[in-house]
Amino acid sequence: MSILIKNARMLKPDFTLAVGDIYIEDSRISEISSKISIEAEEVIDAGGNLVTPGLVNLHTHSGMGLLRGANDDLELAPWLEKLWKIEAKLTPELVYWGSMLSLLEMVKTGTTAFLDMYQDLDQTAKVCEELGVRGFLAWPVVDEDKTTQKGKPLDNAKRFIKDWRGHELVNPGVGPHAIYSCNPDNLAKAKELADKEGTFIHMHLAETRWENETTLENYKERPVPLLESINFLGENDIFAHATWVTKNEIKTLAKARVKIAHNPTSNMKLATGGVMPWKEMKEAGLTVGLGTDSVVSNNNLDMFEEMKFAALLQKAHRWDQAVLDAREAFSMATYEGAKALGLDYGIEEGKLADLIIVDLRNHLMVPHHDLVSNLVYSANGSVVTHTVINGRVVMRDRKVNGEDEIIKKAVSLAKDLVIE
Ligand SMILES: [Zn+2]
Predict the structure, then answer these.
(1) What is the reported pLDDT for 148?
(2) CB neighbours of 328 closer than 8 A, spacing ≥ 6?
(3) Please, which residues have CB less than 5 A from ligand 1, an ion?
């Protein structure tokens, strides 16, 4: 498969702009120059619009797609109670269509790769292949007395990795849910499995003060030292949240070269209280990407909004306008997330062809003083006209194959999830 994108304005990794054509062969950008005259199977005239790397959503639960708007504005205990009642009704079919809705939204808002953890992940994996989205899927591991999975979660994780390894767009991993749902023995086994299989770990960490307090009560350690004591920390760990961590714990995480997924909207909506200490993490040299979390705690998967909220939350929290600027927010949502997942991102020859075209005539992108400022502070996902993933055009002129059916199915199937 070959694609020629003509008349593009390109955002380079150093934030300079270049003008020219882009040639994509199979899954990679093979050539960039001022004019390319080689034939291609598909030609897109960008008409001077902006080509940027695709956005990377570093923490979400796509299978929850049909739960949007079903559970808001409650305190933690009644919120969880209601969520579990709804989730008890989920079937593989509902997770499949929930994932369809979530991935459709990702494609329409310029996300090209995502990191996920949820039940019935085989359904989400199928959707990645059907819609053409790059998924990193961490099989949820919780203690056996807490799971609804048939069989042992660790055995199921092993099976999932075996079944999906080697698929082009699906990257299977291990997802120990959190310290409060997975005991240290299971955490160590999950880590062992991920290391043995040469894959990644995705886990919620230090999200709330309650999590710190219960970990201290149960294990006489805070979450990060506990993980350190069982040799859990390593460069294949990607932790979501890390909002309640100390300066010393940040040093420990940086030394172990773990990766962090920041979820500003979810943290604000669920009132986690703590704000992820971005400045200290940056100074320690940690890789920090950006995630939306699920549509129950966000309630959308638009990474453009997430960039803006990331910047605004830090500014409001630190009383410092410069603490997280537009370029840093854009990097978190693209290059840093890609780095956490081991993806080679950027509009350069040899890099993965995971990219988007942004309409520079959309009112949210006008005028053109600073296009990165527009992307972060003004735009939302509706400015994206084309989404290319792994060298395949997944959205063309804002149209995605099968879109109408996904919407129809999602509306009708979600009725089964209503609870009084
Ligand atoms: Zn989460």
Answers:
(1) 85
(2) 282, 311
(3) 293
Distance 371 CA to ligand 1 centre (A): 31
User: How do beta strands 201-205 and 384-389 pair?
Assistant: unpaired
Tell me the CA–centroid distance for residue 242 and ligand 1, in Å: 11
Distance 116 CA to ligand 1 centre (A): 9
Alpha-carbon distance 176 to 227, whole Å?
Answer: 12
What integer pLDDT is reported at residue 293 of this predicted model? Answer: 97
What is the strand order of the sheet 201-205 is part of? 55-60, 111-116, 134-141, 170-176, 201-205, 237-241, 259-262, 287-290
How many residues make up the chain in this entry?
Answer: 420
Compute CA 146 distance to the chain's CA centroid, rounded to the nearest angstrom. 25
3-state percent breakdown (helix, strand, coil) of the chain, nearest 5: 40, 25, 35
182 secondary structure, DSSP code:
S
**Percent of the chain at pLDDT exceeding 70:** 100
Distance 92 CA to ligand 1 centre (A): 19
CATH superfamily for domain 2-53+348-403: Urease, subunit C, domain 1 (2.30.40.10)
Can you identify the CATH homologous superfamily of domain 55-341?
Metal-dependent hydrolases (3.20.20.140)
The domain segmentation of the chain, as residue ranges, is 2-53+348-403, 55-341
DSSP string, 220-249: SS-HHHHHHHTT---TTEEEEE--S--HHH
Please state the rounded mean pLDDT for residues 82-89.
91
Distance of CA 155 to the CA centre of its chain: 25
CA 293 to ligand 1 centroid distance, Å = 5
Angle between helices 121-131 and 92-108 in degrees, nearest 10 = 40
Question: Contact at 8 Å (CB) between 306 and 291?
Answer: yes
CA of 59 to the centre of ligand 1 (A): 6
Mean pLDDT of 408-420: 88
Q: Write the pLDDT tens digit of every residue in 257-293.
A: 999 999 999 999 999 988 999 999 999 999 999 999 9
Model pLDDT for residues 134-190, shown as the tens digit of each residue: 999 999 999 988 888 899 999 999 999 999 999 999 999 999 999 999 999 999 999
> Rounded to the nearest whole angstrom, what is the distance from the C-alpha of residue 380 to the centroid of ligand 1?
22
**Phi and psi based region of residue 308 (left: phi greater than 0; alpha: psi -120 to 50; beta: remaining):** alpha
